[in-house]
């Protein structure tokens, strides 16, 4: 006897509201529909009513996890319109913050994923590691979230003593290499809940236009950091991580190996921090008329910004397309034919970020 | 057996939970309790301009004072007001912000009153320059009498100085009395 079952919007697996309505026959999911829009805040419209300085603070609140990515991408768009060239030191600092943010986002996800499969001790291990990242972010920016590092034309805060952050990176690399990655890839409990679960084939990945780690776990080698290097990625060298399997396990492995790559990038950026100014401009920004589109690789995939200016005090239009916007619908093909109990880990494997999808 | 080993191993290891003593140090960049120094503020409005959640606003009593208001409930601790204040009147200190350590709601609002002063030349009420700024400006040797001037009179005095520098006293022709 088929029945339909609403999961959410108050969610057992995630902190944010979204709804998956599944049709089941017995234990098995036959189809699913995803509904979003429960935390809509109208940020794009608000952005047209705030001046160029205030918008950065506002845009930083698009997402609570990858807040820096959004503020940074917006600033990059404004810099493109105004023809401001970012000083090298600022580019390195932005890269460091962006990669630290990716680390903390992926670790957060790994912890939540571990909890979804009932693996609480792994959750604790992961969050102990994540705390090191948060401490580093706090030491650099003064805040654990919403770092407020970006301004149009550069960054607001310096990293005066780059070497001070290296021990935390060592501890992270050790923890990831010795505990998190082996547990996710070898522990029988973790394997039983992730291997072969929630498959998304390469063809489906193309069809559903997924981005970020979800695409890379289905064999699509797309990463803005490699395809269209921005900030310091071209200088630092970047290797993308791709897996062909397309299941939850592959998404775990892609994110885990990406974290190792992030640790390497941060270490290199810290060691090669070039001298120079933090900002290309002083005082309040003046943005001439024009428009720009910018893509960056957020922790969850490609973030796309379109910013238009009419030369006034506020942007004329800020269009934001976040990675989860395309990744969340791909839950529908992933859960088909899977058991109901796997629904929560499958949707968590996409790392859906609802607040940035709804904006 | 394996489980026994793990339990024994854990018993012999020190706790991994953070004790209060090994909390991470509060970084110097931490953005906590906000303070405002009325003595340095020129009521220029820059802080209110850059504050996205509109935590800062001004009220005025015409001819008497301008008040700078801050409501911590709207503050997002972005630190932009501190970064952009031209006279460094705002400071986000490393203490815990007021709203978090007070259940009664004290410290939620700040108000600084900036008294207007009459101009010593024309009498117009104006916001005086902060003492530090004045000292820096007047160290260059401006006329002490100009300290009490309003911005308009300062501008007038400056252009008068320029004029006398370019046009020697005797050379001012008849009818050359431009007032601006
Ligand atoms: S606090 Fe600073 S920015 Fe704000 S009005 Fe006073 S002088 Fe201007
Ligand atoms: S810290 Fe930011 S939000 Fe708070 S008053 Fe200053 S500008 Fe406004």
From TrEMBL, chain A:
Domain of life, source organism: Bacteria
Chain sites annotated for binding Ni(2+): 63, 66, 353
Pfam families: Complex1_49kDa, NiFeSe_Hases
Binding residue positions for Mg(2+): 44, 320
InterPro entries the UniProt entry points to: ComplexI_49kDa-like, NADH_Q_OxRdtase_suD, Ni-dep_hyd_lsu, Ni-dep_hyd_lsu_Ni_BS, NiFe-Hase_large
Cofactor(s) needed: Ni(2+); Fe cation
PROSITE patterns assigned to the protein according to its UniProt record, in alphabetical order: NI_HGENASE_L_1
Sample GO molecular function, one term: oxidoreductase activity, acting on NAD(P)H
Span of domain NADH-quinone oxidoreductase subunit D: 116-281, 286-359
Keywords: Iron, Magnesium, Metal-binding, Nickel, Oxidoreductase, Plasmid
Cleaved signal peptide residues: none
Binding site for Fe cation: 66, 356
Protein name: Nickel-dependent hydrogenase large subunit
Annotated organism of origin: Azospirillum oryzae
From TrEMBL, chain B:
Annotated protein name in UniProt: 4Fe-4S binding protein
Annotated PROSITE patterns: 4FE4S_FER_1, 4FE4S_FER_2
Superkingdom assignment: Bacteria
GO molecular function terms noted in the UniProt entry: iron-sulfur cluster binding; metal ion binding
Domain 4Fe-4S ferredoxin-type as annotated: residue spans: 32-61, 66-95
InterPro entries: 4Fe4S_Fe-S-bd, 4Fe4S_Fe_S_CS
Coiled coil: none
Pfam name, any one: Fer4_7
UniProt keyword list: Iron, Iron-sulfur, Metal-binding, Plasmid
